[in-house]
Amino acid sequence: MIADGMGGHACGDLASKMACQGLTTIFDDCTADFESKQYAQRLEELIFSVDSRLRQHAITHPDCTDMGTTLSALLISGNSVITAHVGDSRIYRLRGDHLTQLTTDHSFVQEMIDEGELTPEAAINHPLRSVLTRAVGTQEPLEEVEIRIVDAAIGDRFLLSSDGLHDMVSFKEIARTLKNEIDPQQSAEQLLNAALRNGGRDNVTTISIHLSSPEPNEK
After folding, report:
1. Cα(168)–Cα(90) distance, rounded to whole angstroms?
2. Is residue 8 predicted with pLDDT exceeding 70?
3. Which terminus of the chain has a smaller tally of CB atoms within 10 A, N or C?
4. For 215, how many CA atoms within 13 A lie in the half-sphere containing its CB?
C-alpha cells in the first residue's frame, strides 16, 4: 500500500501513517477460504473506517484540521489482484510490453481531461494539478472507494507510486524501466532516481512487485 499525506495540510504525515496502519488489520478476521470479492469488500470497509478515524482525530486535535491522505492498496489472492484506491497515487500493471494504469486519478485536472477541457500534456504543469476531488480524511466524509479486481498472471509486474513519480517520469519511461529491470527493488530505485533527475518537485514513493514462478522445492 501507499499513502501520501496531502501537501499543505496539517498532519499529512500522521494521516498517511494512520491510513497504512488501518489497512494492516485486513487479515485479522479473514479466513483461508476468503474469495476476491470478500477481500475487496473488507478493504473498502477498512478505508471507510480509516476515513472516519482521521476525521475524528481532526476534531479532537484542532491543529490537524483537514488532515488527509491518498491511499492505494494492492492485494494478491490466488489468480486475482484486488486494488483499492482513493486520491492520485497510482497502481500500474505491466504485462508483456503493455503498461496499464489500474487506478484513476481523483483530481480536478483529471476531471477536466475526462471532460475534454484539458490535454494530459497541459495537465502536467496546470496550477491545480495537486487539487484532489477525493481523499481519505479531511472534513468531507469519503463517499466512494475505487475497487477493482483483475486477473493475475506469471510475469506480471505491478507498481504502486505516489504522484511525485508520475509528475516527473513519463508513462513510457515507467514502462521501459519496469520491463528492463529484472529485480523489483532495482526497478523501484531506478524510477526513484529518474524522478529526482527530472526535478523531484515532490516526495517520491515506489513499490515494485514481480510475479514469477516459484523456484524448485518452493511452495
Report:
1. 14
2. no
3. C
4. 0
- Taking the C-alpha atoms of residue 46 and residue 58, their distance in angstroms, rounded to an integer, is 18
CATH 3.60.40.10 segments of the chain: 1-87+135-152, 88-133+154-219
Provide the CATH topology of domain 88-133+154-219.
Phosphatase 2c; domain 1 (3.60.40)
Q: Which CATH superfamily is domain 1-87+135-152 in?
A: PPM-type phosphatase domain (3.60.40.10)
Give tens-digit pLDDT for 65-104. 889 999 999 999 989 999 999 999 999 999 999 999 999 9
CA distance 24 to 31: 15
How distant is the alpha carbon of residue 41 from its chain centre? 17
For the chain, give the number of residues: 219
Inform me whether the pLDDT recorded for 216 exceeds 60: no
All residues at 6 or more sequence positions from 114 whose CB lies less than 8 Å from its CB, including other chains: none
Distance, in Å, from the CA atom of 160 to the CA atom of 30, rounded to the nearest integer, reads 24
Query: What 3 state SS string does 157-170 have?
Result: EEEEECHHHHCCCC
Smallest CA-to-CA distance from 149 within 91, 206, 97 is with 91
Q: Which residues pair with 99 in a beta bridge?
A: 94
